[in-house]
């Protein structure tokens, strides 16, 4: 493998992984571990298997076709790509408001400054990445560095928490109970919405496409899930170590209390770094990927792609600073977000068997079957969460 290709593949993997590891990722992992204890290991295991099945399917078809997801969707059914793009942009913008807020919170923990001020500083830093000439390379490097920082610091906290690793391993394969909702939540948080397309679209921009690239792209897609999963497992063990000691987490900020209880004030500052890194990389990933879903619809949008990404970040930051986090809207958009994976994966599976899209490429039958199972499961859960999300808007 060429060194340049290796760098691109690693960058795409980290972009996807750090897009997944956001404020919601930290909170979900902490809360579910507190509820399920060591049995949460089983939830992580099953979600990893589903994540790999979804992502390898999507990345392979994107690479083989040389097209972004919205263009593939329009080839399958005219107009479907516009609908998919609408869902992604709405979801990406809404969740980016939360990501900006998380970055502000991280800076508040680190420096004691107002979260809104921290959000503005973080937003400006994210904008700076897309101002530089080689924005793609800058984004790749940014995601890799902060990805390593998050994993290393959380690993330190895990060791200080002294988790019961033997029990965690046992319950991962023989759980006391199985929580289906937790599994679907983790899958949605790892490959739901815009997240799974972050790396795939990055490979398109870097020109790494075609049948010859399939083995490398497949490995990169698995690396991406692996990176996000390593962070999930380390955080799970850190939380398990704390709660196994009989310590109670602060319900207002469960992840912060884990770091603080495990490593004192140093741990609390480490949480600030991890929260900021998780949030700001998600800001970058959400903005880049959301805009990548509309840039092909017009030569003008393509020409001003970088300006659109910057505008996306500025709008997200402005909404958080002047309005805050519009919770009810986030509920609705979050429910819509749950429908993106089954729609997109379903479209990809149809496209995988259309010669006008993939040429003479033959998609493995087992991957198609695995993908169909994921589509059915995630569609059911997406509809369930949507039906529960809309009524909350009218209470």
From TrEMBL:
<dbReference type="Pfam" id="PF01566">
    <property type="entry name" value="Nramp"/>
</dbReference>
<feature type="transmembrane region" description="Helical">
    <location>
        <begin position="36"/>
        <end position="54"/>
    </location>
</feature>
<feature type="transmembrane region" description="Helical">
    <location>
        <begin position="142"/>
        <end position="160"/>
    </location>
</feature>
<keyword id="KW-1133">Transmembrane helix</keyword>
<feature type="transmembrane region" description="Helical">
    <location>
        <begin position="75"/>
        <end position="97"/>
    </location>
</feature>
<dbReference type="InterPro" id="IPR001046">
    <property type="entry name" value="NRAMP_fam"/>
</dbReference>
<dbReference type="GO" id="GO:0015086">
    <property type="term" value="F:cadmium ion transmembrane transporter activity"/>
</dbReference>
<dbReference type="GO" id="GO:0005886">
    <property type="term" value="C:plasma membrane"/>
</dbReference>
<feature type="transmembrane region" description="Helical">
    <location>
        <begin position="329"/>
        <end position="352"/>
    </location>
</feature>
<dbReference type="GO" id="GO:0005384">
    <property type="term" value="F:manganese ion transmembrane transporter activity"/>
</dbReference>
<keyword id="KW-0472">Membrane</keyword>
<dbReference type="GO" id="GO:0034755">
    <property type="term" value="P:iron ion transmembrane transport"/>
</dbReference>
<protein>
    <submittedName>
        <fullName>Divalent metal cation transporter MntH</fullName>
    </submittedName>
</protein>
<feature type="transmembrane region" description="Helical">
    <location>
        <begin position="364"/>
        <end position="386"/>
    </location>
</feature>
<keyword id="KW-0812">Transmembrane</keyword>
<feature type="transmembrane region" description="Helical">
    <location>
        <begin position="270"/>
        <end position="294"/>
    </location>
</feature>
<feature type="transmembrane region" description="Helical">
    <location>
        <begin position="221"/>
        <end position="243"/>
    </location>
</feature>
<feature type="transmembrane region" description="Helical">
    <location>
        <begin position="306"/>
        <end position="323"/>
    </location>
</feature>
<feature type="transmembrane region" description="Helical">
    <location>
        <begin position="180"/>
        <end position="200"/>
    </location>
</feature>
<feature type="transmembrane region" description="Helical">
    <location>
        <begin position="117"/>
        <end position="135"/>
    </location>
</feature>
